[in-house]
């Protein structure tokens, strides 16, 4: 990623009495390493990155890739 990486961040939270946990997720600004052009009447090129998001609890884990918007550029 051009010398800048999304680093792993860990946070430990405690569940409430119903088993729910609340936490904050913050990422550095996206660089826009990937892009796509929408195909509408007013065309923009959207730049984005993907970031992995994982939740772990004991031996159970869930990982998902997230779309991380960087910016858009008017094409025409």
Q: What would you say this structure looks like, in words?
A:
The protein has 76 residues and is mainly β. Helix content is 0%, strand content 43%. The protein has strands at residues 34-37, 44-57, 60-74.
How would you summarize the topology of this molecule?
Layout: E1 34-37, E2 44-57, E3 60-74
Antiparallel strand pairs: 1-2, 2-3
State the helix count.
0
Structural class: mainly beta
Across the major sheet, the strand order is 1-2-3
Which series of helices and strands comes N to C?
EEE
In whole angstroms, how far apart are the ends?
28 Å
- Runs in which pLDDT lies below 50 for 5 or more consecutive residues are none
Overall pLDDT score: 82
Say how many strands there are.
3
- What's the multimeric state? single chain
Overall geometry: elongated
Largest sheet, in brief, is:
3 strands, antiparallel
Rg, Å, rounded: 17 Å
Task: Please report which band the strand proportion falls in: under 5%, 5-15%, 15-25%, 25-35%, 35-45% or over 45%.
Answer: 35-45%
Report the helical percentage: under 10%
């Amino acid at each position: 990623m051009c010398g800048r990486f999304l680093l792993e961040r860990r946070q430990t939270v405690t569940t409430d009495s119903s088993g729910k946990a609340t936490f904050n997720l913050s990422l550095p600004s996206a660089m826009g390493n990937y892009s796509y052009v929408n195909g509408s009447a007013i065309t923009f090129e959207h730049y984005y990155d993907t970031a992995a998001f994982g939740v772990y609890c004991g031996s159970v884990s869930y990982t998902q890739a997230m779309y991380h918007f960087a910016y858009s550029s008017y094409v025409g």
